[in-house]
Amino acid sequence: MSKSTVGADPGESPVTPDEQDLGAAGSQLSTAPVDTLASGPALGVVGWTRWFWRQLTSMRVALLLLLLLALGAIPGSLIPQSGTDETKVAEFRQAHGTLAPVYDRLGLFHVYSSVWFSAIYILLFVSLIGCIVPRTWQFVGQLRSRPPGAPKRLTRLPAYTTWRTDAEPEQVREAALTLLRKRRFRAHLSGDAVAAEKGYLREVGNLSFHIALIVMLVAFACGQLYKSEGNKLVVEGDGFSNTLTQYNDFKSGNLFGTDDLNPFSFTLDKFTGTYETSGPNKGTARTFQSVITYSVGAYGKDKKAVVKVNHPLEIDDSKIYLTAHGYAPVITVRDGKGNVVYRDAVPLLPLDSNITSSGVIKVLDGYRDAKGVDEQLGISAFFLPTYTEGSEAASTFPALRNPVLNLTPYHGDLGVDSGIPQSVYQLDKSHMKEFKDSKGAQLRDNLEPGETMTLPNGAGSVTYEGTKEWANFQVTQQPASGWALGGAITAIFGLAGSLFLQRRRVWVRAVKGDDGVTVVEMGGLGRSESAKVPEELGDLAGILYDQAPSTPDPDTPASPAPHASPASSEPEAVPAEGAEK
């Protein structure tokens, strides 16, 4: 017998002509809309509009758009993005002079805000809403209505069984009604039969899955538009206030404003790092943590907190992450007359896993040489937390076991007054002169804590006072992240419910036969071809059979308890008239 699909979800069993003859009883056990992709549109603008809307809101197109969204996100992961790292984008443009203009036209340097990605995103959003709204309305109607009455010929159902009993039809129907309700079926009397249905949570899971997708799309969009992310390097004893000018670098979404920053401040009291001291993992970090004192608002009380790696401090919807660590030697610079012109802890950037570090000390104002001439000092610094003879180029351990600071001083013009921005970690030597030692070589010296480098010709001195530690904090503010997590969890449970729950219908008919003996018929119908429907019907039939046992014919032995079987095979016990074999 040929079969044809009528409005079935992917994976749903096709509907046969026999099942179509069942009427309302054989109607779809889901809210999936009828597939109209194969049908052509009616003439006219209205007809084409309806046809386009049906295609857009079909589940097939929604899955296609979801696939396109996933494919469109791939360039955003492989190509540097202008909103994330402008430096890498500039390097890519310089290295790929031919390819960069093509990427610009395609919007590949800003994928997630490009026109084509936004179009896919919006179409997917509209498609899901257009698919969910009618299905939800239809499902609400199904919940408010009763299960459909029994079809005229139960033998056409996929699972069927029958027997004869001396019990009255009313007693059988009442027992069946009680049994089905006890098994959490929605059941009611309909004429000479009991109609029952179960498994509505399947459709609830299906709708929950799609609604959760919409929630996730909205949450991701809000998170991108209103997010902010900034980094701040803080030395022990120093503080930070959550204002835009305090950040070392800052980026945000298109709709984020400075007024959206949460008002708080904190001070880094102490940073503690411990490392493996032996074995193959020697030097590997064991613990990184920062003890901070923070307050919320202008008049908030001070509170203590410990920020660890992957354990951020949450203040309102801001999260403060500990992302990096290094050392900041405390440097004191004196001029030719012995006056202190600079004293500060200078953060140096790590170069390797043992925190070999480098950086620059810049003395911009107040310095005068031995002749009283105003100059600027620039000092290149190279720091080894654990210095070992024979390994002068790098530290042998990340902790402060034997710290040594190598200094190379210069004097002249640092170029900071030219109006051209420059990094605090780099030294422009184009207008600087080297200091020479007594042998005429460039002045360079290794200092231990407490030691002083004397500049030649009475130009002053540089003292290495000691070492502080610094920590880099990343402050993120991404609203709707909780909604995104809730949507993801709901989607998982909804998908599980739609995959593992079965929606099915059961009918029990009890009528008097021509010989005055009650004929009991039971039939079951499921959304998909599953062995659970015959098994469940057989279980119900066995319980009902115990309450209304069969009456054997006078010339035949008593028949065994019935069990449900597929309609294509001969049912156990005596079939009703017209049952197929």
- Tell me the structural class: alpha+beta
Shape: elongated
Average of per-residue pLDDT values: 84
Query: How far apart lie the N and C ends?
Result: 15 Å
Strand count, sense and closure of the main sheet?
7 strands, antiparallel
What proportion of the residues form beta strands (DSSP E)? 25-35%
Number of helices: 10
Question: Radius of gyration, rounded?
Answer: 39 Å
Q: Percent of residues in helical segments? A: 25-40%
Strands, count:
23
Q: Ranges with pLDDT <50 over ≥5 residues? A: 1-20, 567-581
Keywords: Cytochrome c-type biogenesis, Membrane, Transmembrane, Transmembrane helix
Protein name: Cytochrome c biogenesis protein
InterPro entries: Cyt_c_bgen_Ccs1/CcsB/ResB, ResB-like_domain
Subcellular location: Membrane
Q: How does this structure look, described?
A:
With 581 residues, this protein is α+β, with helices and mostly antiparallel strands. Helix content is 28%, strand content 28%. The protein contains 10 helices and 23 strands. The protein has helices spanning 17-20, 45-56, 59-78, 86-95, 99-106, 115-144, 169-182, 200-225, 481-500, 532-547; strands at 159-165, 186-190, 193-198, 228-235, 239-241, 249-252, 264-275, 285-296, 303-308, 313-315, 318-334, 340-345, 349-350, 357-363, 376-384, 404-412, 432-434, 445-447, 452-455, 460-477, 504-512, 518-526, 565-566. Strands 4, 6, 10, 11, 12, 19 and 20 form a 7-stranded antiparallel beta sheet that branches. A hairpin with a 6-residue loop joins strand 8 and strand 9 (303-308). The longest helix is centred in the first third of the chain and has 30 residues, at 115-144. It is elongated, with a radius of gyration of 39 Å. Mean pLDDT is 84; it is low at 1-20 and 567-581.
